Amino acid sequence: TMKNPVPQAASLLLEKLMLLVHIRPLPAGSGGETPPPAPGYYDTSCFKRGDLLEVPRTLFIHFGIYLGENRVAHLMPDILPSISGDRRQIQQVVTNKRLILGVLARTASIRVDTVEDFAYGGSILVNHMDRLFEDQVLGSEEAARRAEKLVGTTAYSLLWNNCEHFVTYCRYGAPVFFFFFKMIIRDQRSVLASVLVGLASIVCLGVAPSTTLPTIFFFFFLWMAG
């Protein structure tokens, strides 16, 4: 039997919408762009193996798992692993072009970089999500091992497999995408996009008409709570 194309089309539309509204290329790359901070820019003595690191950006948050010895495992969209086997070239800092093409091609890599390359001058929050998942926090070593096992090429999806899903799986045992939606709703520059996200979510998730109003109130609450 043929699958209903409506949820698939709505999911694709939702991903493209979020790409246009919220994905801003990282400052990493070449062509005269500012290089990442020199080693030692961050004090890593306060980080412990298995910590969940967050780097707030203007329009998004980037996440990673600290592995110790100034190394962070994080998921990044990247086209290069799907077209080249040159590990030395792949390990170089991901450029804007590689990142954008990776998003469009739905290809990413879970890679290990220095704290400086991971954060790229941004402020770092440590285990900021733990307060929301107090009963689900795995052991630090377990979180780090999960991250290490997943290093390599992977599929990418703005909705279902991004850097947030990677770290929440490693530290809490299951991928979580609630914060991604909250981040979108709380950005007042994206009110129209938030409405479309809510409507597309209703279609994608098969929400019955009788629950449409509570769903709208739910998104409104998240926006106000932000």
UniProtKB/TrEMBL annotation:
<keyword id="KW-0812">Transmembrane</keyword>
<dbReference type="GO" id="GO:0047173">
    <property type="term" value="F:phosphatidylcholine-retinol O-acyltransferase activity"/>
</dbReference>
<dbReference type="GO" id="GO:0006776">
    <property type="term" value="P:vitamin A metabolic process"/>
</dbReference>
<keyword id="KW-0808">Transferase</keyword>
<keyword id="KW-0012">Acyltransferase</keyword>
<dbReference type="Pfam" id="PF04970">
    <property type="entry name" value="LRAT"/>
</dbReference>
<keyword id="KW-0472">Membrane</keyword>
<feature type="domain" description="LRAT">
    <location>
        <begin position="52"/>
        <end position="179"/>
    </location>
</feature>
<keyword id="KW-0732">Signal</keyword>
<feature type="transmembrane region" description="Helical">
    <location>
        <begin position="191"/>
        <end position="224"/>
    </location>
</feature>
<dbReference type="GO" id="GO:0042572">
    <property type="term" value="P:retinol metabolic process"/>
</dbReference>
<dbReference type="InterPro" id="IPR042288">
    <property type="entry name" value="LRAT"/>
</dbReference>
<feature type="active site" description="Acyl-thioester intermediate">
    <location>
        <position position="163"/>
    </location>
</feature>
<dbReference type="InterPro" id="IPR007053">
    <property type="entry name" value="LRAT_dom"/>
</dbReference>
<keyword id="KW-1133">Transmembrane helix</keyword>
<dbReference type="GO" id="GO:0005791">
    <property type="term" value="C:rough endoplasmic reticulum"/>
</dbReference>
<protein>
    <submittedName>
        <fullName>LRAT acyltransferase</fullName>
    </submittedName>
</protein>
<feature type="signal peptide">
    <location>
        <begin position="1"/>
        <end position="28"/>
    </location>
</feature>
